[in-house]
C-alpha cells in the first residue's frame, strides 16, 4: 500500500469551538480500494472531521488533499473527486429518482453528454433501476438511503465519505446497504463513520478511533484486538475511548 498514493491525505487538522479544542493534530490517509472506519463516542470529533474533509468547515490548522488537490486552495477541483452522504441525505422528495440523479450529476459537473450514462451506472450500482421513475418521497427509508449513496457516486469520485449510512434502517436494509458499501470499497476509497463495531469489523480495512478530538487508535481490526489481549472489540473500544491518553 505504501507504493500507492493516497486518494485523501489530511495533516495536522485542528479546530476550536470557542475555547474548546474539538479536533487536535489529526493525521489521516485513505487509499484506493479500502474502507476506513471512523469511530468514536458522541462528541469525539467525528462530525467535525467529516465536515473538514468535505470542505464544509475550515480547519483551524492543517491541510487536506484529495487526489493531490489542496481542498483549501482549490476547493472546486478537489471536490470533483469527492462524494458525500451526510447523516441526513440531501434529497428532493418531490423529484423522481432519475430526475434527482440527473440534477446531482450536473451539480458534480458531469459533462452533459455523459449525464445519462452516469445516472444509469449509479442506478445499476445501487440497485435502483426499478425505482428510477418513482418519486423519492414515496420510497422506503432504505431505498432513500440508496438514492443518497447514488448521488454521492454519480460522478465516479475517487473518495466517498458516508456518515452513519445504516442508522435507523431495519436489519434487511442494513444488510443490503453494507453489501453496497463493500462493493464500493473495492473500487473507491471510502470513509465510513459508524457507531457499530460489528459494522466496522465486517467492512473496514482499517479503523481510526477518536476520543475528545484526538486519535487514540489507527490500524486494523486485528491490531485493535491486540491492544486488549483476551478482551472483546467492545472492551477495547471502551478502554480506548474512556482511558486517559498521553
Task: Report what the structure shows.
The chain has 9 helices and 10 strands. With 246 residues, the chain is α/β, with parallel strands linked by helices. The chain is globular and about 50 Å long. The mean pLDDT is 91.
In short:
With 246 residues, the chain is α/β, with parallel strands linked by helices. The protein is built from nine helices and ten strands. It has one domain: 3-Layer(aba) Sandwich (Rossmann fold), CATH 3.40.50.
Shape: globular
Number of helical elements: 9
Domains counted in the coordinates: how many?
1
Number-wise, the strands total 10
Task: Provide keyphrases for this structure.
alpha/beta; Rossmann fold; 24% strand; 10 strands; 9 helices; 246 residues; 6-stranded mixed beta sheet
Secondary structure elements and their pairing?
Blueprint: E1 8-17, E2 20-30, E3 35-39, H1 46-53, E4 61-66, E5 69-70, H2 75-79, E6 82-85, H3 97-107, H4 115-125, H5 141-153, E7 159-163, H6 171-184, E8 189-193, H7 197-203, E9 206-211, E10 214-219, H8 221-227, H9 233-242
Parallel strand pairs: 3-8, 3-9, 6-7, 7-8
Antiparallel strand pairs: 1-2, 1-4, 4-5, 9-10
